[in-house]
Amino acid sequence: MLPIAFAPNYAHPLPDGHRFPMLKYELLPEQLLREGTATATDFFVAKPPAVADVLLVHAADYYERLRLGHLTRQEERATGFPWSAALFEREVTILGGTIEAARLAQTHGVAFNIAGGTHHAFRARGEGFCLLNDQAAAAAWLLAHVPTVKKVLIVDLDVHQGNGTASIFQSEPRVFTFSMHGARNYPARKEASDLDLPLPDGTDDDHYLQLLGRTLPRLLDEVQPDFVFYLAGVDVLATDKLGHLALTRDGCRQRDELVLNLCHRHQLPVVVCMGGGYSERIADIVEAHANTYRVAAGLWG
């Protein structure tokens, strides 16, 4: 079984200008079901978590202002979304889906959130289309509620640095944050992850995979994590409008194979979230994301 979090409101209620990149939340489950990578029983409905679980990583004042729509205009502009009650419900549902995926991964070895990877959300502010940080909250939930999880590794391979995640855990030795991202990409001001690997524009498959292949096995040996979160953004593709790297779809799949094979070999439970993807053709985005699930199905299915 591949437990996969999904909710009908993942792609809604966003303005028309945001609809295209959000179509993947609807199309990816359809693709996985149509080709047989997943079955209907693999999917579970993501639900909002207890407020206390959100507050493990977010300031209470920020959460309340977000819930009530009391963000300042500047704060709202930084998120990239106009506030609505339905948008808030979407964000807490994404976060709840990743927490539930973390619970299920302990039994099944791997679990997914069709959304997630909202790594630009800080403790008391949102930015870059991220309002609440789902992987940070799920990592904190594991450390608070699962005695066997004493060390968490976050592997962030989205093209953008996981600045919010790095900031949230900057003084938390039980969470190791690793971000491999475009050096000149958003955000302009980077935070300090436990390990940052900034990449030059135009980085291709060979350079990317060699660097990751040298780094991640060493990290697993040094960090000795009990649990891994993997942010598998496909905005590393050469076809991506915002990414500026040059990976092929096959290179992106090999990246997933490298990460997931290591987790499987070390018997490390892993939660995978989608992250970004902004190629011109929606088929390129969906196919690259689907490859991540296909790799996991071959290992844990």
Fold and architecture overview:
The structure is a single chain. Helix 10 links the parallel strand 7 and strand 8. The protein is α/β, with parallel strands linked by helices and 301 residues long. 47% of the residues are buried. It contains eleven helices and eight strands. It is 44% helix and 12% strand. The model has no long low-confidence stretch (mean pLDDT 95). The protein has one domain (4-300): Histone deacetylase domain (Arginase, Chain A). The radius of gyration is 17 Å and the shape is globular. The termini are close together. Residues 23-290 form the Histone deacetylase domain. Belongs to the histone deacetylase family. It comes from Hymenobacter jeongseonensis.
Shape: globular
Number of strands: 8
The CATH homologous superfamily corresponds to Histone deacetylase domain
Mean pLDDT: 95
The value of Rg in angstroms is: 17 Å
Give helix % range.
40-55%
Protein name: Histone deacetylase
Domain Histone deacetylase: 23-290
InterPro entries: HDAC_classIV (IPR044150), HDACs (IPR000286), His_deacetylse_dom (IPR023801), His_deacetylse_dom_sf (IPR037138), Ureohydrolase_dom_sf (IPR023696)
Pfam families: Hist_deacetyl
